[in-house]
Amino acid sequence: MKQSTAFSIAAITFLVVVATVTTMSFELHELSDERKPFAVKNFTLDGPGNVEVRTSGGSITVKGGEGKEARVEMYVRVRGKTITPDHRDAKEIMDDYNITIDKSGNTIYARAERENSISGWFGNNHASISFVVYTPREVSCSLSTSGGSIEISGVRGGQKLETSGGSVRIEDIRGQTDARTSGGSIKINGYSGTLTAHTSGGSIDLANSQGDLKVNTSGGSIDITNVTGAVEASTSGGGIRADVTKLEKHLKLRTSGGSITAVIPQGLGLDLDLRGSRVNSRLVNFNGEADKDRIRGAMNGGGIPVVMHTSGGSINLEYR
Q1: Which of 9, 28, 59, 290 has the CB geometry, 3.0–4.6 Å to 148, for a possible disulfide?
Q2: Which domain holds residue 96?
């Protein structure tokens, strides 16, 4: 009786181990399928190049790196699952799209255009087509999607980013950038150059950056940390906090729906124009007018314009 019991326990243990290993193998297989692109193309760029990506239903990611080689990966998702060309419905699904992944001169093109928008949106096989592009560092990008997020990192050049339905993330970029989204937040880190960023539906985080920096949102807060240069920020729906380590040209912060706090280096010559329900700042060597809700005048002889206006909160100007 004891022998039989021991055998049963051993058998059960063996089956549990086998089942666990099988489950793990299945999960790993599923994971690898999820990461497998539908199509891949490789190119070579000689010198500074261009990348143009368009899709109406997915995300776009561009990653810059060393060397001349570039790679475009296209991912297709249907009903939340990534599919590959051997999927049983792949041909039927892709017949609704014109796909272009090509190179002309020193420009790489990746486009997914829906042929029949009605069947695409209301049929059972509506697909989300995303692109991941690995490029040399010296590239200028034009990226546009109406249904997903945009991420770009590690490149040098002029960048134009536009999405109607997702967030924008920018990291380690040098050059001139115009970023716009109607439906998400914007996060920028490690940027250097001339920046214009606008969102109609989210917050903006700008950190560790330098240059001429202009950001605007209609629907969220703005957080600026460790930046150098000329800074301009405005929002209709939230507060603003700006930490400027080195101020150049100007600082202009405006909101209709919150308070503003700015921290700047001390000892600078400033032309102050501060207005809010309550204005707080330590004034040294100041010449001008100072009231509870308004400060206007020159500090340390004047110089860099500092404009901070709010219709719905307080103003706090601090010095480090």
Answers
A1: 59
A2: 36-141
